[in-house]
């Protein structure tokens, strides 16, 4: 029905002829209604066909895009040596991407299975891997692990497995899916990089050790020059450094010093202890080498050596903040004449107010001074020196350190004899 027919029919139904002939009018109305229904149905059918065609076109576009995406994914997986898999554990059936067959170098006609995968696991590692995968299957959170697989010709591949598990309400694994990627080249590059880094670290450590040894040799030479004014051999600094390290090693295992002593502490106290009397360079020979007892005035001058040494190191440390060697050198230089009961100098510190490094230095310094000949005294025996140390426990010295010293006194005696002999 055209637009003209529709208008013509409408004009007739409203005309005088239609009003004078009701039968004809009813017939014409029915015919007009049939025509209208036909038009509506035709238009609806046309719209449905057009809509279907449009939807079909869109669907075809989506399918084509999906196919291109799947092809791109497949190509990407082959390039990246990455495959995906999905297995139902109850039936041991599932699907693998072609990339997994390529990684495992397996025949694609073989159905995917755990057994096929395990056939690429080295025999000596199968039990370990089986336990590993079993534990991974019980955890719903994604897990990733790197494994070594053996190809039929004996070549080894390193592969990264990512596993996702679905668990039943009772906690039993029912499905597993994830990826398998050949990372052999990556693992080789990582190993080469690690070996290079280790070699580089060894070279750096060697250079640092060489510089450190040169620096320490310079420090020892300067301190020996100072010490030689009141010590004939200059061995005092080497012995006290060794005593400090030995006593610190004994203290490391004691609960009273838990967490305070580590490898860096041991290394630092050995290197920093020679600085303890560096301030004596500022004390006149008339006082430093006086064979008789010092007058109160002279003793006050002698006590200033700790502050002279401290201020000297302080100026250096301000340029190297955070350096444990200098920090410990400052502690030892300034505080090694402090006493446990607070009667020492220069600051009158007591107990644990005194830095641990300085408390260790105090025991080591006095023990070596007692054992050694000085311009004002003869050398004492180990037994007499030990008795003097013990009598000052809790007053001059940290009582726990004296307890540790006495428990290992034979080691200190042997160390003194060995280092003294080496200097002869």
Explained architecture:
The chain starts with a helix and ends with a helix. It is elongated, with a radius of gyration of 46 Å. A 5-stranded antiparallel sheet has the order 2-1-5-4-3, with helices on both faces. With about 425 residues, the protein is of the alpha+beta class. A hairpin with a 5-residue loop joins strand 4 and strand 5. Helix 8 packs antiparallel against helix 17.
Features:
424 residues; alpha+beta; 17 helices; 5 strands; disordered N terminus
Quick one: overall form? elongated
Number of helices: 17
Question: What distance separates the N and C termini?
Answer: 131 Å
Q: What order do the helices and strands follow?
A: HHHEEHHHEEEHHHHHHHHHHH
Estimated helix fraction: 55-70%
Class by SSE composition: alpha+beta
Mean pLDDT: 80
Unreliable residue runs = 1-7, 9-14, 73-79
Strands in their spatial order, largest beta sheet: 2-1-5-4-3
Radius of gyration over all CA atoms, rounded: 46 Å
Number of strands: 5
Helix and strand layout, with pairings?
Blueprint: H1 3-13, H2 16-20, H3 22-80, E1 82-88, E2 93-96, H4 98-104, H5 114-118, H6 126-137, E3 143-150, E4 156-167, E5 173-182, H7 184-227, H8 236-252, H9 263-272, H10 285-288, H11 296-303, H12 305-317, H13 324-335, H14 356-371, H15 382-391, H16 399-407, H17 409-422
Antiparallel strand pairs: 1-2, 1-5, 3-4, 4-5
Helix pairs in contact: 8-9, 8-14, 8-17, 9-13, 12-13, 13-14, 14-15
Short description:
This protein has 424 residues and is an alpha+beta fold. It contains 17 helices and five strands. β1 and β2 form a beta hairpin.
């Amino acid at each position: 029905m055209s637009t003209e027919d529709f208008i013509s029919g409408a004009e007739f139904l409203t005309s005088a002829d239609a009003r004078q002939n009701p039968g004809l009018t009813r017939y014409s109305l029915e015919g007009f209604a049939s025509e209208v229904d036909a038009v509506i149905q035709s238009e609806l059918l046309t719209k449905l066909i057009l809509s279907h065609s449009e939807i079909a076109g869109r669907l075809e576009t989506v399918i084509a895009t999906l196919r291109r995406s799947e092809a791109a994914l497949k190509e990407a997986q082959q390039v990246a040596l990455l495959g995906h898999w999905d297995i139902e554990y109850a039936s041991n059936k599932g699907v693998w991407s072609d990339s997994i067959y390529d990684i495992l170098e397996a025949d694609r006609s073989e159905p995917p299975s755990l057994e096929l995968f395990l056939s690429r696991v080295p025999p000596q590692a199968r039990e370990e891997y089986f336990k590993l995968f079993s534990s991974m299957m019980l955890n719903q959170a994604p897990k990733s692990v790197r494994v070594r697989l053996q190809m039929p010709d004996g070549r080894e591949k390193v592969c990264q497995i990512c596993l996702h598990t679905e668990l039943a309400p009772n906690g039993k694994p029912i499905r597993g899916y994830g990826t398998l990627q050949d990372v052999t080249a990556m693992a080789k590059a990582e190993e080469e990089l690690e070996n290079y880094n280790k070699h580089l670290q060894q070279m750096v450590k060697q250079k640092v050790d060489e510089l450190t040894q040169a620096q320490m040799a310079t420090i020892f030479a300067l301190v020996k020059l100072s010490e030689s004014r009141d010590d004939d051999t200059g061995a005092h600094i080497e012995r006290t450094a060794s005593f400090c390290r030995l006593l610190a090693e004994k203290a490391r295992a004691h609960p009273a010093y838990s967490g305070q002593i580590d490898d860096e502490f041991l290394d630092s106290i050995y290197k920093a202890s020679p600085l303890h009397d560096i301030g004596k360079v500022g004390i006149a020979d008339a006082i430093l080498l006086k064979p008789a007892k010092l007058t109160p005035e002279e003793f006050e001058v002698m006590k200033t050596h700790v502050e002279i040494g401290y201020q000297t190191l302080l100026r250096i440390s301000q340029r190297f903040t955070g350096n444990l060697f200098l920090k410990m050198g400052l502690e030892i230089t300034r505080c090694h004449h402090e006493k446990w009961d607070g009667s020492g100098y220069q600051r009158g510190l007591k107990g644990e107010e005194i830095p641990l490094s300085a408390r260790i230095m105090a025991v080591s310094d006095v023990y070596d001074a007692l054992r050694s000949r000085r311009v004002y005294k003869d050398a004492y025996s180990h037994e007499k020196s030990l008795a003097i140390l013990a009598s000052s426990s809790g007053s001059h010295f940290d009582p726990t350190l004296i307890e540790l010293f006495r428990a290992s006194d034979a080691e200190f005696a042997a160390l003194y004899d060995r280092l003294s002999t080496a200097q002869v």
